[in-house]
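re: ur question from the group chat, yeah i did fold both. here u go
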Amino acid sequence: MKKIKLTAMLLGISSMAMAQTADNTELPFYQVLISIIITLLAFTLILVIYTLQKVAQLLKREAMGDRYLEVEEQTMWEKLLSLKPLSAEKDVELDHDFDGIKELNNPIPPWFNVLFYGTIVAAFVYILYFHVFEAGNLQAQEYKNELVVAEKQKADYVKKAGNLIDENSVTLLTDASKIKEGEQVYATKCAVCHGEKGEGKVGPNLTDEFWLHGGSIQEVFKSIKYGWPAKGMVAWQNSMNGAQMQELASYILSLQGTNPAGAKEAQGEKVASENSVSDSSASISQANTVQQ
C-alpha cells in the first residue's frame, strides 16, 4: 500500500509540473484536464495491477494449503532477482528436461520490469510534454538558443579581449570595416587638433612621412594611449580600450600619402610608412563603400 501511495504522489507531482510551460506560464485548461485524466488512468492501472497481485497470492495460498506456510523466507537478494527458494522450485519447473537438467520458469526480476515500464512511461511523458503540450524546446530550438547565447558570449569576450591589446601586441589592421570604425573614432576625438582629413591644425600633419614620435603601428598606438601631455596631447587609455586604439592607429596610418588640401608643413623625422599609398587609398575606398 505504501508503494501505491508513493506512486500516486509522484504522479500528482508530475501532473502539476506538466501544467506549466518552460517559462512558468500556465497551460490552457483543456491541457491541464487531459493531464489530470492521464494521471488518474495511470493510478487506476497501478491499483488494478496491485489488486490482481493480491488475488493471485490468495489463490496460491488456497491451492498450496499448508505448504504455503512452509515456503522458506527469501533473502533481499532473492527478492530483488525474483528467485524462488529451493523448496519452491517444483512450482516453477517446466516440462523441458535434457539429460537430467530441468528448466525453471523464474519470473523476470522486478528491477528489470521497473526499467522496462519506466521507459514506456518516460516516452509517453516525452511525447506529451514536447509534442502535444509543446512545453519544452526540441533539439533544433535548443540549438538556436545556444547559438544566441554563444554569440552573446563571443561579443562579451571580444569586448574584454580589446583590453588585452597593447603597444607590444598591436598589429596593423587592413580590414575595411575596422578602418571605418577607426575613422569614426578619429572624427570625434582627433579631428579637432589634427584636421578632418589628417592635414594638421594645432597637432601635426598625419598624412606625410614625417613623425615626431615614430610612425610604426606600435609607436602610433603608444602615442594615442599615453599621449604627450607636455605638447598638449591627452592620453586616451582611460576612455578607449586596446581594440579601439588599434583601429584608430590603423586608420591614421591609412592616411599616409593622401595629400589633403591645406596640409600642414612636415614636422619631425621622415619614417618609412608601414602602409603604402596604394594600400591606404584602397582601405579608404573600401571603408567608404561599406559606409554607403
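okk and heres the other one u asked abt
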Amino acid sequence: MGMIAVSVAFLSVALAHAHTPWVVPRGGSTEYSAKLEQVKATVLEKAASSIDGLKRAILDESSVVDDFGSKADSICIQALEDFATSAPQDDGSSSQEVYDKKLEELEASLDAPLQVLYLRQLTLLRQEALERYRSASKTSEMSEHAAIMTAERQFAQQAEASTREGSTWDFSAERSYLVSVMNNIAESSKASQSNQLEWSQKHQTAMQVLQQQQQMIQQLQMQLYGQTSPWNVGLAYRIPDTNFNLQGSYQQGRANVQLSCVPDDYAPMLGPNGFTQGVGPGNLGLSLNLSI
C-alpha cells in the first residue's frame, strides 16, 4: 500500500509540471540583441564623420591620403572600443554569441566603405606611378627597366601604407596592372624610336642619292660644254617708245637671248620719252652673280 501511494503522488507532480507553460526569461538573447543593435547604430553614426572626411579627399578631390591604412585602422579600433564600452551586460547563456556576432557586423559595416576608398586610393597611386615613370623615362638618363622598377617600388610602398593590417585588402592586382601598362609603354616607345631612326636613315640615303645624281649631272655638263664658268650675268633692256623688252643671260657657260613684248602701263604718265632720253635706269636692268 505504501508503494502505491508514492507512485500516485509522483504521477500527480509530473502531471502538474506537464501542464505548466514554458516562459522565456526576461532579458533573453532577443532583447539583448536589440540593445546591441542600437549601440552599433550609434557607433556607426559616430564613425561616419571620419569616413566622410576620407571620402571627400579621395573621391571628391581625387587626392591621395597619406597613411590611409593606419587611419582606417584607427577608425575601426575606435569604433570597436566604443561598442565594447557602450554594450549592455547580460547574464544569458547565449549573450556572448550575440555580442560576438554584432561585433563582427560592426567591423564589416566599417570595412566595406573603407575598402571602396582603398580601391580608389590604389587607382590614384597607380596614376601617380605612371606619371613618375613617364617623367623619368623622358627627362633622366635612367633606362626603361630602371624607371619601371623605381615606379613599381614606390607604388608598392605607398600601397602598403594604405592597406589595413590584418585585413583582406590586397593590391597585387593593381601592381601587376601597373607593371603591364609600363611595359606596354616602353615597347611602344622603343618601336617609335626604331621607326624614327629608320626614317632618318632612309632620308639620309635619299639625300645622298640626290647629291650623287647632281654630281653626275654636273660631270655630264662638263663633258658636253666643257668647264663651266663661275660667272652668271643677266641683262634686260626695253627699247624706248616700244613695248619690246630684250633680255639676255649668261649662265654656266651658256648664253640665252629673249625678246618679249611687254606693254608699259606707266608710259602715258612718263611722256613720249619718259623723264630721260636714251638708256637709263628705267629701261635698263643688269644683274651679276658669281659662283665660287
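fwiw on the second one: The two ends are 157 Å apart (CA to CA). The chain is about 65% helix and 10% strand. idk if thats what u expected
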